Structure formats: structure tokens, C-alpha cells
């Protein structure tokens, strides 16, 4: 009996738990614009994440600071999260053995692949908002190193091994830095990645990307190649020379809520007791708006409106990414269930030899119940991400402009006043996540 008691105690003692953080309350606070209460809430609820989901704590802290305009603290939290995610991802393969005994919640959460990529992208946005383009470019280079690792690691196992928007932003920042050959390569990689995005997630290539590739192809001395790559593009774009006399406005809108993971559990009543298999799936949130635009108004009364397109559908990426891993998740879950059954059966047989058939049967049942109760799906995810990211780009004459957002076909939501100089790129950010 001692062997079974120890086995049951081990299962119960090591059962992991998903974070208990109150996201509904946080969402209400952010929707009301109460940044003081939001930051206070996250700082006093670190223990709600549990010891194995501290990466999510730092990511949620970073996003709250980001939304509230506390960019220094946001950058610090993203930096800590990036280092933690890198270490955990490296460790995850060797640490996975423990989860075969109980469940995936007993190991540290290293983040989904796309979540890790979005750490660098969101950190880049943070630095851009703070006017620190140099650090933003560093984050983009980290992102591109990560994507290279994914390509080396996964080959054709996962659809998500490229981040098209991350590549695109890398190109924009490289162009700002005057690194035209580097910018051309990033734009080329973004163009290639968006072809995969269109197939996998239904996300088309932003029209401005074709124009950007054609424009930087001139100083990069790759115009002939660029024309072949953009064959069929019918949009208009300023030439490289004329663009230098204008300013460029990049509009980025974080919209909606990222999906959340929930548990699906199947329990089969076998002759020896219940056998459970648990696995995660994403639940998506309805999108309040499906359209977006940026309107610029100058002091002469002129109005320029540019429609924005979805450049990163985080919801679609999350769902597809999990779907890609479904077979591997099922394989691991079934193997874990079998391992528990073998351990329980061996303990029950030993008890049967020592104390008789009835005692062995009771031991088998108790072990099966414990094994079933400890079978839990890993429902951890980065819940404070947006559901999608809109983007548009436009060249304008130098001058001062009032920037307005258009959402749900409603225009004139004032954002800020910007001053655009010749040869300068200005970013305008908008957040409609709540």
C-alpha cells in the first residue's frame, strides 16, 4: 500500500495549476483608462501566476505599462521577459520529462513561438514610441535571429516560423537608419512571409510593402529584381528621389483581444477506473471593428485618408499554431496517460500480492482516480496581447498634421498632432484593445 500512497501523493503534490489572475477585472480597469489601478493590480498579484508562469507575469506587466504610456518600465519588463523566454525555451526540451508524469503545468511556461517573437516586436514598438529608434532596431535584429532559429529548428513542422510584420518593421527601421541594402532584404523577407500569411491565416500583403521594396531597390541597386518580385502591383508610389523630399507616416493600431486557451477533457470509464485525456484549444473574442484608417488634416484644411489593413492577425496565428501542434500534444498526452496507468497498475499489483485481490482492486481504483484528477491541459497564454495589428503607410508633404483614427467606419477620433519633415518617418500608434 505504501507504494501506491507515495504515487498518489506524488501526483497530487506535483500537480501544476494554470494562473489565477483576474483578467476580466484588469480589462475593465484598462477599458476605463484607470492606469493607476491597473498597474497596482498587476504588481500585487504576482503570486496569482504561480511559480511556473512568471514569464506571463512579466509580459502582462509590460503590456500594461505599454498601454499606459509608461514606456521605460514597459521596455524593462519586455527585456526581462525576453531573457527569461530565451532561457526557458532552451531548457524546455530537457525539462519536458517531468510533464510526462503529471501534466504540462508542472514545467515553466516558455511561451508559444509566436508569443516569443511578439516580445521583440512589442519591445520595438515601445522604443519607437519613446523615440529610441536605435534600440527598436536592436529588438528587430533579435527578432530576426529568433526567426532564423525557428527556421533551423522546425523546417516544415510548423506554419509559423516567420513573422511577416516583424520583418516589415525591421525593414522600415533599417531604411530610417540609412541601411538600404539591409532594408531591402527585410522587405524581401516580409514579402515572402506574407505569401505564407495569406495561405495560412488569410492575411494579404500590405500594399505599401510592394512600394517600399521598389523604392529602396534603387539605392540598394536591386531594381530589376524588385520589379520581378512586385509584378502585378498596380499601386502608385513616389520614386526614391521624390520620396526624399516628402515625409512618411506609419500608422499602427493594436486592435481587439488575443484569444485565450481553455481545456477540453475526455474521460473514458475503463474496467479499472476513469482514464482522462486533457488538451487545450483557443477561444476567440469577437472583433469590435473590422476596418481601420488614418486621416491626416493640415492647417490649410486638406484631408488625407489612408485605409489600414491587417498586417498581423494574432488570433489566426495563435489558433493555427496550436493546430499545428495538435498531433504532438495528443501523442504526449496519450503517452502520459499510459505512463500513469502503468505506474498505478504496478503499484496495485504489488498491493494485491501483499494484501489480497480486494485491496489490489481498491488500490487500482484510487490510483486511477488520482491519475485522472491530475490530468490537466496547459491553458497558459499571453492574454494581454491584441487580437490583430493594423498598419498603413503614407508619404506626405512636410508640415504639421492632426492625426485622426477611423474605426468601425467612424472617423475623427483625434490621436495626436505630428510634425513631419522631409526625409523623416513618423509613427502614429493607436490602441483599441478594450
Task: Identify the notable features of this structure and list them briefly.
seven-stranded mixed sheet, two-stranded antiparallel sheet, alpha+beta, elongated, Serine Threonine Protein Phosphatase 5, Tetratricopeptide repeat, 16 helices, 9 strands, 20% strand, 434 residues
Question: What can be said about the biggest beta sheet?
Answer: 7 strands, mixed
N to C succession of SSEs: HHHHHHHHHHHHHEEEEEHHHEEEE
Distance between the termini: 54 Å
Strand arrangement, major sheet: 8-7-4-5-6-1-9
Q: How many structural domains can be distinguished in the coordinates?
A: 1
Give the total of beta strands. 9
Mean pLDDT level: 87
Cα shape: elongated
Instruction: Tell me the helix content.
Output: 40-55%
The Cα radius of gyration reads 26 Å
Q: How does the helix and strand content classify structurally?
A: alpha+beta
Top-tier CATH class: Mainly Alpha
Contiguous low-pLDDT stretches (5 residues minimum) are 9-13
CATH architecture: Alpha Horseshoe
Please count the helical segments. Answer: 16
CATH topology (fold) name: Serine Threonine Protein Phosphatase 5, Tetratricopeptide repeat
**CATH-defined superfamily:** Tetratricopeptide repeat domain
Proportion of beta-strand residues: 15-25%
Protein name: Tetratricopeptide-like helical domain
InterPro entries: TPR-like_helical_dom_sf
Keywords: Signal
Signal peptide: 1-20
